[in-house]
Amino acid sequence: MRSDSEFDLIARYFSWPAPAGMLGVGDDCALLPVSHGFQMAVSSDMLVEGQHFFADVDPADLGYKALAVNLSDLAAMGARPVACTLALSIPRIDHDWLKAFSEGFQTLSRQAQCPLVGGDTTRNPAGVVISVTVMGEVRRNHALRRDAAKVGDDIWVTGHLGSAELALRMLQGRLPADAARLAAARPVLERPWPRLRFGQRLAGMAHAALDISDGLLQDLGHILRASQCGADLTFDRIPAAPVLDGLDEALRRDMILAGGDCYELCFTASPKRREQIQATARLLDVPVSRIGVVVRGDALRVLDADGNPLPHGPGGYDHFRAAGTP
Amino acid sequence: MRSDSEFDLIARYFSWPAPAGMLGVGDDCALLPVSHGFQMAVSSDMLVEGQHFFADVDPADLGYKALAVNLSDLAAMGARPVACTLALSIPRIDHDWLKAFSEGFQTLSRQAQCPLVGGDTTRNPAGVVISVTVMGEVRRNHALRRDAAKVGDDIWVTGHLGSAELALRMLQGRLPADAARLAAARPVLERPWPRLRFGQRLAGMAHAALDISDGLLQDLGHILRASQCGADLTFDRIPAAPVLDGLDEALRRDMILAGGDCYELCFTASPKRREQIQATARLLDVPVSRIGVVVRGDALRVLDADGNPLPHGPGGYDHFRAAGTP
Question: Is the overall model pTM greater than 0.95, yes or no?
Fold first, then answer.
């Protein structure tokens, strides 16, 4: 009866059947089951056109990534995804755009077993704004909190760092485009895979964890401040993305240490857990690297092969400082 | 160290201590307790400057209302608030604005015992966009779902209808301003009180419920479609706000039946529950009116005192139809 209304948009693009035991899109609220002995982990993000993504971004990539960045927060908490909600404002009803956006979102929603259970679509002449909230569950007292690092802990990181930052700078024209490098780096920027299964295995095994979406040094800094300790990292142990090979060394270092939009996990754990962590990483096919150690004090030092501190800035991404950086 | 950064804004304006047993602002995710035998109810909304509120709105009212409209969804589900998250994008850092916004938000957050546990602030040159997600808990199988109305149910509504719509039309210049009426109606528009306690009492007592934020007829229509039944309403039983007295009758009727931004509850219940509902309403000092009955079929009829149908349009608010209507 009411074509192209808010209700039709939700019904048409965002109403996938909710799993058994769950009430999904269509009522005032979604209803979620929570297991006894578990806590619910919740995180909300907002992505703004022109700030976090380009107006001409592939809408399927955007839909995927809007969910991915939030799922990464669940991964960093050690939580299993339960469900998500999406609030979306758009300048006009563009069915091709909506179809692609919802397909990208749904692709990851299925892969991560994180059904969309609530939606709000609204008009915004100024541009697209997306807010996703994810909910997961984690066994009580097992969550990977940022204030849980202990002096003597190993510091680990998953994956290889710097690809997303490289792709971003090339797309923004801040670095000369290089077709081969961009082709290799771009998927990491556009379709990051949140480390959900590995994060869940770390719960109860590791101490503190974060994703390093604001850059390794800045996010590790959050752990250190919250846990009231310092860290010594060995630069040569930090796993650089191969696509950075051959770049100017200062640039390469900056992208590894401060590159944003990176959805790998940085975590700390007792040295007694080394074998268990390596075995879990092998089982799940997740590369892990032991890059440093938690120390007393409040300094975060990056050391060269001889143990001498390398100079580095505070690094990382800040939405109110780096305006225009998606 | 980093003044006016995203982290400072959250720490400065949106980090209130979380209650015991909860992890609040500052980690990847908040952690919430959920009681055994309960489900979690979740709802997300998005409010866009120029669409849902005026750019010059009092930021304290805006902060209050951004939470109120979401809490009303919990009320309509019969859920008790547990916590909320806020994603906020703003064109620039205006400390007076942020202080007032956060105070308005916090006022209701405290009154409703719904602590803010997660925040995301980001820059948006195009204007303010707010997305709030509320989480509550409701005993399993007790939630007030819109598909639960039964033929023969009474139809009830809380409060008195039409004030918010009147205030809105005057503020938009769609109706001539009338200082006395506006002064009486405006608080209902700007500081609506979600029917949380009454909604919680209704869980397990009523069948279906909704808030009528899109207008009585449109929202009751959602219940009827989801429940596959119709309704006969008696117009004279629908409680009109006294501030509408003396207005043109067609205008008055439209504001009562289709006026939006109304956070009263419409619910259906077995006639056997009449006394219990009246007693609960008296206990909580909530006005309730029995306005009609659920019938077979799919028609929603509004009857005059003689039982003859009154003409009415589909009514209610649609974000993609009524562009520019806050």
Answer: no
Among A176-185, A277-286, A312-321, B260-269, the range scoring the smallest mean pLDDT is A312-321
Q: What is the DSSP string of A39-106?
A: EEEEEEEEEEBTTTB-TTS-HHHHHHHHHHHHHHHHHHHTPEEEEEEEEEEESS--HHHHHHHHHHHH
CA closest to B41 among chain A residues: A31
Q: Do residues B156 and B277 touch, judged by C-beta distance below 8 A? A: yes
Give pLDDT tens digits for A153-203: 999 999 999 999 999 999 999 999 899 999 999 999 999 999 999 999 999
- Chain A residue numbers with beta carbons less than 8 Å from the beta carbon of B23 are 143, 145
Residue A313: which of A326, A302, A298 has the closest Cα?
A302
Q: Compute the distance between CA of residue A186 and CA of residue B246 in angstroms, rounded to an integer.
A: 65
Q: Is the pLDDT of residue A324 over 60?
A: no
Strand, helix or coil at B90?
A: strand
Distance from CA of A73 to the nearest CA of B (A): 5
Find all residues with CB under 8 Å of A254, minimum gap 6, and list them.
Answer: A315
Count of helices and strands (H, E) across chain A? 9, 11
Residues of B in contact with A50 (CB under 8 A): 125-126
The rounded radius of gyration (Å) of the Cα atoms in chain B is 20
Domains of chain A, residue spans: 6-139, 154-303
Spatial separation of the C-alpha atoms in residues B234 and B12, rounded to whole Å: 51
Name the fold adopted by A6-139: 60s Ribosomal Protein L30; Chain: A; (3.30.1330)
Do the Cβ atoms of B48 and A122 come within 8 Å?
yes
- Within B15-84, where are the H helices? 59-77
Q: Are B125 and A50 in contact (CB under 8 A)?
A: yes
- Measured in angstroms, the CA of B288 and the nearest CA of chain A are apart by 21
A223-A224-A228 Cα angle (round to 5): 120
- SS in 3 state form for A286-317? CCEEEEEEEECCCCEEEECCCCCECCCCCCCC
Nearest residue in A to B147, CA atom: A27
Cross-strand pairs, A135: A42, A83
Query: Given this structure, which CATH class describes domain B154-303?
Result: alpha beta
Measured CA to CA in angstroms, residue B258 lies from A62, A120, B15, B219 at distances of: 36, 20, 39, 9
- A296 phi-psi bin (left φ>0, alpha ψ -120 to 50, beta other): beta
Cα B96 from Cα B320, distance rounded (Å): 32
CA B169 to chain centre: 18
